[in-house]
Amino acid sequence: MTTESARNAAGTAETPAKSREVRLAAHPDGALTPAHFELATVEVARPADGEVLVRNDYLQITAVMQDLMKPEPDLPMPAYQVGARLWGGAVGTVVESNSPDLAPGDLVESMDGFGQYSTAPADQFHKLDRDAFPSPVHYLTQGPTAYHGMVDIAEVGEGDTVFVSGAAGGVGSLAGQIAKARGAKRVIGAAGSKAKVDYLVNELGYDAAFDYHDGPVLDRLRELAPDGIDVFFDTVGGEQFEAAVQASAQGARFALCGALSGQVGDSQGAFPRLDVMTAIVRQIVIRPFATYHTPEQIQAWNSHFAQWLGEGKFVLPHTLVEGGIDAAPQALIDLLAGKYRGNVVVKLS
What we know:
Elements: H1 3-12, E1 18-24, E2 37-43, E3 51-61, H2 64-68, E4 90-97, E5 107-110, E6 117-121, E7 126-127, H3 143-153, E8 161-164, H4 172-181, E9 186-191, H5 194-202, E10 208-211, H6 217-224, E11 229-234, H7 238-246, E12 248-256, H8 276-281, E13 285-288, H9 295-310, E14 318-321, H10 328-336, E15 343-347
Parallel strand pairs: 8-9, 8-11, 9-10, 11-12, 12-13, 14-15
Antiparallel strand pairs: 1-2, 3-4, 3-6, 3-15, 4-5, 5-7
């Protein structure tokens, strides 16, 4: 559909009086279950002056959403509140506008995705270029996190040997490709199954990968990177962090993005041991990072992503979940259980 036809279709579409949204029913204490979510029916608010009404078409699902459900997540982003609608990255279409800044048919991005419709001031939505990517789903990636961590934090570059934990996940599947596009000599990934290992090597261009269930991680790293790793991009923590310290090269740079092994099960993975003497002798630079991404970081990712796609250096690893807004809670549960590969997006309309 062209931009003009999309504009006309959106402008004449009938907007329902009611829509559905996902709310937090209770703070989780242990594993996430459907009981922690509430699906509510609400009135669709018509836009006041300066506001727009947006139909959310796609919702991004990320592991950090479980942390935001805690009473005090200690993250640089607003926590979810019991009884209130969740928030999350979404791409949608403007269907009504009382603002000169956006028109019906415009493709927009916001952080108000856990509902079928959103009504808010126009400046809370970012207008997107429909022609920049093959589909709107390409805007809903964890690319800003992967790019910021791999480029700004780890400073990956020519000749580096790189190890990515959680390499088949939404961040890791992009981080490894970013390293290759930036000239890394060798990129190694760890994942949780043979199918994911094959996926990393055969589809995402990793030079090597292994299943972390198949014996000590340190043994695999020493086998696959005999000269040591220069960059470690960590989304898992636990044994993989400990092994990366032991397998590090002199002056290795560690970008700590997450500790997924500490978010599920007994949480022990959130507390890996640091061999301090090894870190000192090898002068390892360890930089944890968490950020509510700035427009500049998002633009840096989108511009490089579009360039690398056009050059054939990149693919979008993602899983598209059908089922509308009702499928969103289970999609998050399944993501945390490791059932998906790449970025996870729920199709809302």
